[in-house]
Amino acid sequence: MEFENQANQTHNIRLTCCSWSWMKFTFLAVLYCLVLSPASAYDPLDPTGNITIKWDVMSWTPDGYVAAVTMNNFQMYRQISNPGWTLTWSWAKKEVIWTMVGAQTTEQGDCSKFKAAIPHCCKKTPTVVDLLPGVPYNQQFTNCCKGGVLASWGQDPLAAVSGFQVSVGQAGTSNKTVKLPKNFTLLGPGPGYTCGPAKVVPSTVFLTTDRRRKTQALMTWNVTCTYSQFLASKHPSCCVSFSSFYNETIVPCPSCACGCHNKNNCLKSDSVLAHKTGINTPKKDNSPLLQCTHHMCPIRVHWHVKQNYKDYWRVKMSVTNFNYRMNYTEWTLVAQHPNLNNVTQVFSFDYKPLIPYQSVNDTGMFYGMKFYNDLLMEAGPLGNIQSEVLMRKDQNTFTFKQGWAFPRRVYFNGDECMLPPPDAYPSLPNSGHVNSNSILQKAASVLLIMFSICFSL
After folding, report:
1. Is the pTM above the cut of 0.85?
2. What GO biological process, any one, is recorded here (predicted)?
3. Interatomic CA distance for residues 28 and 34, integer angstroms
């Protein structure tokens, strides 16, 4: 009997240990999923979007090499806006930068040991920025001098490229002795990007201007940087409000949708401070100066279900800027909705369908027309842009019930906006609350028909 009790105790201990181990495994699995969740580190609407930095070694020098550095923004709807990108890396050895064309480092560092010629930068971790437009021609390089601004690939592929040339000294003089830079960091213009290690890839092939000869880089390596909205900010940067023709309720943005940490640093729309000169001068950290609202967001997107036709329905979209310090240049607006696979006409905005998955076409990118409304002005009377979208109905799926007419996701400049909770969406009126005027009209129609039949007899 005593032996059986001991055996049962041992069995219970084993079960407890197994349960504890299983709980630990489950906890770690859930934590892993949260860390790698789509909301924080992966964009399901742009699964292959990234910024690729390519180094092409074009020639060897007595103590190093000359490289052409190209930055390609392969993100479909996320741009790098003013004040532009900042690129940092760490040298693997004791390299220095002799000269740069098309870009510059923010600091020179300690170059006191050099006597004959002074390098451009002697820092172990140089910080590089793009040159501003209008620099002399001999300081320019292909795709340089845009102030660090990069358009999104989906909007303008030609403007989504930046480049500069760098001459590196005290480095290897062959592809067997050169050491790749490491610890790349990209700010665009703020945090959010994570860069992987430099990897050697097949050498880039170039085509001459007459397209009759191919040349090849002596060595090429790539660095890939991906964006995470979670790393950029713990709060969203925009919100969405809803309304419809079939319901008088206007569903506002959620309160403190973008955080209420700026409550003490906001200006009322009728404040005298809002009209002072210089109030729209950006700070060095690009921090916003917001108009006081309940949502405290720099950008609000309003989706209004405007009209319903037999074969079509119409939506009006409005984007309002509540930031006194920011003009949004070449902005992008992305919406996900099932009926965007059947867009008939878009008014006042340019439109491009996005197909992240071949079998699904429910996402579209809207952006401003060049020299018309591609600039969203700062907070005030001009800080608003509008458009309407006409979509053809699919009778098998179309409905106004349960909020179907409202978007599933909305992005502004690549950041996902906060939507109202689903239970707050405008709902269809109940059949028990039918408009009395419509009842009287129907009754009059019936009586008119009956009278016409009687007189005809």
Report:
1. no
2. cellulose microfibril organization
3. 10
